[in-house]
Write a structure and sequence with these properties.
- The structure holds 3 protein chains of 3 kinds.
- In chain A, the strands form 3 sheets. A 5-stranded mixed beta sheet of chain A has the order 3-2-1-5-8. Chain A has a 5-stranded mixed beta sheet with strand order 4-10-9-6-7.
- Chain A is about 35% helix and about 20% strand.
- In chain A, helix 1 runs antiparallel to helix 2 and helix 4 packs across helix 6.
- By secondary structure, chain A is an alpha+beta fold.
- Among the domains of chain A are: about 110 residues, Immunoglobulin-like (Sandwich), CATH 2.60.40.420; about 100 residues, Cytochrome c-like domain (Cytochrome Bc1 Complex, Chain D, domain 2, Orthogonal Bundle), CATH 1.10.760.
- Chain A starts with about 30 loop residues before the first helix and ends with a helix.
- Chain B has a domain of about 190 residues: Up-down Bundle (Four Helix Bundle (Hemerythrin (Met), subunit A)).
- Chain B contains 9 helices and no strands.
- The N terminus of chain B is likely disordered.
- A two-stranded antiparallel ribbon of chain C has the order 1-2. In chain C, strands 3-4 form a two-stranded antiparallel sheet.
- By secondary structure, chain C is mostly helical.
- In chain C, strand 3 and strand 4 form a beta hairpin.
- Chain C starts with about 30 loop residues before the first helix and ends in a 10-residue tail after the last strand.
- Helix content of chain C is about 65%, strand content about 0%.
- Chain C has one domain: Cytochrome c oxidase-like, subunit I domain (Cytochrome C Oxidase, Chain A).
- The chains are: A alpha+beta, B mainly alpha, C mainly alpha.
- At the A-C interface, helix 1, helix 2, strand 7 and strand 9 of A face helix 3, helix 7, helix 8, helix 9 and helix 10 of C.
Chain lengths: ~325, ~290, ~575
């Protein structure tokens, strides 16, 4: 993965893992084969016409090149209605076919397959949050192979777009409304999801993993992920949460980012924009997560989105525990 | 050649004939065509706003049905009559200019000016009233108690506009949580005087906003949208009226200075065309904004 | 298809004092700043547009340099976002849209038509000053706070200062508004000129195709630009006064903005390409010394593109959340625009067939246009098909597509036209060898820059990305290398063109053998273009012209009964 802010997170899968063609990544969703077929149809028609045009052009330039400046052209007709109609009608037929093929592939995207599992996708600057049917929130998208899924997308702030190249699927996440993306016949594996609508500083860091499990493994993952506290300490859960939800703006190793670093933060004085100084205790940290605009740190912009409604109290406590750990390590 | 075009007499009118035109008639025709093209662009400019109106009204008809009661129909009707009169006077002024009657032309142009100023005066009265009552756009919308009491109860169903389904517990915070623009009331917790029910569209409500008592007026959400549309449309129109008045004032001054004659009155005709368009746009604005049933 | 009537003599300019032309007949700064001569205004536009191209090009080089590495290379993400935003806004509004109509069209249209000036010369000057004002506002924005919204200014990002943290958004939007007026007035001027100032004998179907293309372009300018005007006005009010028409938190709809914006911005790309195609029609015909093939089809196809272009804006919004029905309709309509463009390409090739082809620099650019617009246009087919567009939207595939059409199309045609009319505008010939060298660099550099971007895009590389997955590094580095090559080519062009102003061989009236009316007056033209109105013949009939080795240009055949051109 790049040396960007996400390097400290889990390594992300490749956007176009080996196995695809020159032009396209490997296919991981049921409709992708049809989409690729449309792509290659248009591709070969285009190649044919392009080669034809270039060959004719080069041939004419050579064959009819002017040898002497005073040379008169051999002449020829200045129009030929039958020819002109022919070369209007044939492309017209071809493009109508292209439209039709594109339309058919699109129908998969908008027609819901049967028995789809709903997953809510929330986009915000600059991370994704996925809510599973059992209420669990996660920063990664996990899906069972062979089952249909429906993503219900919306955004907290500006327009984002959820794009998985391996699925050939993309949909804008618009604030104030819901948009939908259907998926079917998923192939097991790890894929990369990216944000495809410019949304500011961290637009190119808004990446996450899409993991397609075998159906049994998916249930296992879901029950384990739904209650991370069952098998982990608060600080460990906090570390995972920070890595997934905070890392695009806050580093844990002291590096500068969009927001202040978490290293050595807990328990230490923080200078605010209005000149006052506060101590970074539990209350301050909790307030910063829920009401980020109230106390902005000096030297930073008021760009942090609120996590109110997205992080439960327990999770906030876990994050604070992890920050304590970071400060302890920094002090040693 | 149109009925209004001047006859070609190069000897006496060479001073008005630009070097690249062959005849005054050609020059006049070109000016008319150019002016109509310009008017077409003005129509398209307003068309965008009419489109905005149509979209918002189609999506939320109850907002328009409810909010237009805040507008004064008598004042709107008065403005309509005033503009229609001014269109008549300016058309008569063109005819006088064509016949060489400069003094009458100047008088009629002066009357047009007066009508236009009257229109702007009435608009000022209306805007001032809205400002006082807090009937503005966006976050500036503040329905005062006095105004609320004078309203009929909200017509139509109290159901919410069919925008997005209600958010789940993972609801979205106020949209500009990090917005610190000083001109906007940008606290991200509800204040005592803030009435979130009127302002927040469904689905973007913060979970800790009071779900409290609603008055009949508050059952219609997003009334401020109507006023956004109202001020945009009438504001842009008023700006065009102002520009039109400037043009007519300039033409009046030139008429008094004797610049026009039966063989050269193009600027008068062009200014009149512009004024007619301004009038025409108001003729559409008035029923769309004031006369909603 | 008649011969130039041998009994009607094309009038020569009235015997002006030797050497007096539009450049020399009055002197001083005021005579330029207050000129109403369309030729001088065209020259002023040309200088300003080339300056804007330099500025936009600098931003492009900065963008490509940052993309040499997958993470931060030379600047921060915020700065990079400003770079690509300014590159796009400057190139689209200050360079590509006005370039051919304002710089070349202003100069050439009246002369090619056979008129002494445009219908409204003072409005023309006003247009130019509005362009300068718009450009100034853009520069003000760069220094006063810049912006990072992308040239498309999508809300809600563009509305809140919390998102678009740079305060230069409103000055640029104001600049765009002002530039829109400039564009509208130019279009209006062209339409009235072509309608009302045609000389005797020039019916609609005797108009040179460059004029048909300018006419179609002007219709789009007049009808579409006002919608852009109201859109940026709404955005300014939304940002400054929180009007609430686009912001969902205030009851507005962000998709409404997209519809408004693209309603103009799609026809805008036809404003960009139609004049370019008009130039190519002229170049291919003149440099093949053969009548353009299918004149009527080409003329009608320009109008068809202008009309159909208004119905397809939704193809920028296939994944935006608009309804599937509307999405399908827009996809179908989008293909309608592709056919007239294809027809033109085939007509140009047919023109070359059986001609006498000369590979002077303008013709090289015309051939490059066919090559690169071919690729650009064909890749549009991928984007018009719904199934593939969902995958390709907002990736580098789109970036490559529009650079092939706008830059490989419009800019290349602009360069071809500039080289073609350079002798007429300046009275000088440039060095042909250097012209060819620079052409090769530009052509190679362009393809090396942008072809890899198609592959990147279809493999999943999104656009407007500061960091990128490292597997794309090789593609990006190749692309940047091409950009540097291209830049060198442009610098060479600037070099030899500037050099020709001082040391170039004086140009004959008709160096290339064109049959349109601008080649019947001297190079540079006299102040009034024509002493009396010329009579027009067939603009693509070259049989009356012959090469005169003495002057290095073309003259009318004495046997045709006409006096030789001076």
């Amino acid at each position: 993965m790049s040396a960007g802010p996400l390097a400290q997170v889990t390594t992300l899968p490749s956007v176009a893992p080996a196995g695809g063609s020159v032009w396209l990544p490997p296919r991981a969703e049921g409709a992708a084969a049809e989409i690729d077929a449309v792509f290659y149809f248009i591709y070969w028609v285009s190649v044919f016409f392009f080669v034809l045009i270039v060959v004719l052009m080069v041939y004419f330039v050579i064959r009819y090149r002017r040898r002497v400046e005073s040379e008169q052209p051999r002449g020829g007709a200045a129009h030929n209605t039958r020819l002109e109609i022919t070369w209007s009608v044939i492309p017209l037929i071809l493009v109508v076919v292209m439209f039709y093929l594109g339309f058919r592939g699109y129908m998969d995207l908008v027609n819901p397959p049967a028995g789809a599992m709903d997953i809510q996708v929330l986009a915000q600057k600059w991370s994704w949050n996925f809510t599973y049917p059992n209420g669990h929130d996660d920063a990664e998208l996990h899906l069972p192979a062979g089952r249909n899924a429906r993503l219900v997308l919306t955004s907290n702030d500006v327009i984002h777009s959820f794009y998985v190249p391996a699925f050939r699927k993309k949909c804008d996440a618009v604030p104030g409304r819901y948009t939908y993306l259907w998926l079917r016949d998923l192939k097991p594996g790890e894929y990369l999801a990216l944000c495809a609508e410019y949304c500011g500083t961290g637009h190119s860091d808004m990446l996450t993993r899409v993991q397609v499990h075998d159906p049994a493994d998916f249930q296992k993952w879901l029950s384990e992920a739904s209650d991370p506290f069952r098998t982990r300490s608060y600080a460990e859960v906090g570390r995972l949460l920070v890595a997934r939800r905070c890392a695009s703006c806050h580093s844990v190793d002291g590096r500068a980012g969009v927001g202040p670093t978490f290293k050595g933060l807990y328990g230490h004085p923080v200078r605010l924009q209005d000149g006052s100084t506060v101590t970074a205790d539990e209350n301050y940290l909790r307030d910063s997560i829920l009401y980020p605009a109230r106390q902005v740190v000096a030297g930073y912009g008021p760009v942090m989105p609120t996590f109110r409604g997205q992080l439960r109290d327990r999770e906030i406590t876990a994050i604070i525990e992890y920050l304590k750990e970071l400060a302890d390590h920094a002090n040693r | 050649m149109t009925a209004n075009s001047p006859s070609a007499s190069p000897s006496t009118h060479a001073q008005h004939l630009a070097h690249h035109f062959e005849s005054p008639a050609q020059q006049f025709d070109a000016a008319v065509q150019g002016m109509w093209l310009f008017l077409a662009t003005e129509i398209l400019l307003f068309a965008g706003l009419f489109c905005l109106y149509a979209v918002f009204r189609a999506n939320n008809p109850e907002i328009f049905q409810h909010a237009h009661h805040y507008l004064s129909k008598p004042l709107g009707a008065l403005n309509t009559v005033v503009l229609l009169c001014s269109s008549f006077t300016v058309a008569a002024a063109v005819r006088c200019a064509q016949l060489g009657r400069s003094r009458q032309s100047a008088t009629l142009l002066g009357l047009t000016l007066a009508c236009g100023l009257a229109f702007l005066g009435v608009k000022y009265v209306e805007y001032h009233h809205k400002w006082k009552e807090g009937l503005l756009w966006g976050r500036h919308f503040r329905l005062t108690e006095g105004e609320a009491a004078t309203l009929p109860s909200a017509a139509g169903p109290a159901t919410l506009p069919a925008a997005a389904p209600d958010a789940t517990s993972a609801s979205l915070g106020p949209p500009a949580a990090g917005d610190s623009a000083p001109s906007v009331a940008s606290s991200d917790e509800p204040s005592a005087t803030f009435r979130p029910m009127v302002l927040a569209p469904p689905g973007l409500r913060s979970p800790d906003e009071p779900a409290g008592v609603t008055t009949p007026q508050q059952q219609v959400r997003n009334i401020q949208t109507f006023f956004a549309v109202y001020f945009l449309m009438t504001g842009l129109h008023a700006l065009h009226v102002l520009v039109g008045l400037g043009l007519i004032a300039w033409i009046t001054w030139r008429t008094v200075a004797g610049a026009f004659s039966p063989l050269y009155f193009t600027p008068v005709a062009m200014a009149a065309l512009y004024w007619h368009l301004v009038d025409l746009i108001w003729i559409y604005l008035f029923p769309l904004l004031y006369l909603i049933h | 298809m008649s011969v130039l009537n041998p009994t009607i003599v094309l009038d020569q300019p009235a015997p002006a004092p030797a050497g007096v032309n539009y450049l020399t007949h009055t002197r001083g700064l005021r005579s330029w700043l207050l000129t109403i001569d369309h030729k001088r205004i065209g020259v002023m536009y040309l200088v300003s547009i080339l300056a804007a191209f330099l500025l936009g090009g600098i931003f492009a080089i900065l963008v490509r340099t940052e993309l040499l590495g997958p993470a931060k290379t030379i600047v921060t993400a915020d700065t990079y976002n400003q770079f690509f935003t300014l590159h796009g806004a400057i190139m689209i509004f200050l360079v590509i849209i006005p370039s051919i109509p304002a710089a070349l069209g202003n100069f050439v249209l009246p002369i090619m038509l056979g008129a002494k000036d445009l219908a409204f010369p003072r409005v023309n000057l006003l247009s130019y000053y509005l362009y300068l004002l718009g450009a100034l506002l853009a520069v003000v924005s760069i220094v006063s706070g810049s912006m990072d919204t992308g040239w498309t200014f999508y809300p809600p990002y563009a509305i809140d200062s919390a998102h678009a943290r740079f305060g230069g958004v409103i000055p640029v939007l104001l600049g765009v508004f002002v530039l829109g007026f400039s564009s509208i007035l130019t279009g209006l001027n062209f339409i009235v000129t072509i309608h009302k100032l045609r000389p005797p004998g020039m019916g609609w179907f005797r108009l040179p195709l460059f004029l048909w293309s300018l006419y179609a372009t002007s219709v789009i300018q007049v009808l579409a630009t006002p919608v852009l005007g109201v859109t940026v006005l709404l955005l300014i009010l939304e940002r400054a006064l929180r009007f609430g028409v686009f912001h969902p938190g205030l009851g507005g709809d962000p998709l409404l903005y997209q519809h408004f914006f693209w309603f103009y911005s799609h026809p805008a790309v036809y404003i960009m390409i139609l004049p370019a195609m008009g130039i190519i029609s002229e170049l291919v015909s003149v440099f093949s010394r053969k009548h353009i093939f299918g004149y009527h089809f080409i003329a009608f196809s320009s109008i068809a593109i202008a009309v159909f272009g208004f119905f397809v804006w939704g193809h920028h919004m296939f994944v935006s959340g608009q309804s599937p029905l509307v999405t399908v309709l827009f996809s179908l309509l989008t293909y309608s625009v592709s056919i007239p463009s294809a027809v033109k390409v085939f007509n140009w090739l047919a023109t070359m067939h059986g001609g006498s082809i000369s590979l002077r620099t303008p013709m090289l650019y015309a051939l490059a246009f066919i090559f690169m617009f071919g690729i650009g246009g064909l890749t549009g087919l991928f984007l018009g098909a719904l199934a593939t567009d969902v995958h390709l939207h907002d990736t580098y595939f789109v970036v490559a597509h529009f650079h092939y059409t706008m830059m490989g199309g419009t800019l290349i045609a602009m360069l071809g036209g500039l080289h073609y009319w350079w002798p007429k505008i300046t009275g000088r010939m440039y060095n042909e060898t250097w012209g060819r060298v620079a052409f090769v660099l530009v052509f190679l550099g362009f393809n090396v820059t942008f072809f890899p971007q198609f592959i990147m895009g279809s493999r999943g590389m999104p656009r407007r990305y500061f960091n990128y997955p490292p597997e794309f590094t090789a593609f990006h580095q190749l692309s940047t290398l091409g950009a540097y090559l291209m830049a060198i080519g442009f610098v060479i062009i600037a070099g030899y063109l500037l050099h020709s102003l001082f040391r170039g061989r004086p140009a004959p009236g008709n160096p290339w053998g064109g049959a349109t009316l601008e080649w019947q007056c001297s190079s540079p033209p006299p102040p009034d273009n024509f002493a009396t109105q010329p009579v027009a013949g067939d603009p693509y009939d070259f049989r009356a012209l012959e090469y005169d080795p003495g002057s290095g240009g073309y003259v009318m055949r004495p046997s045709a009964g006409a006096r030789p051109a001076s």
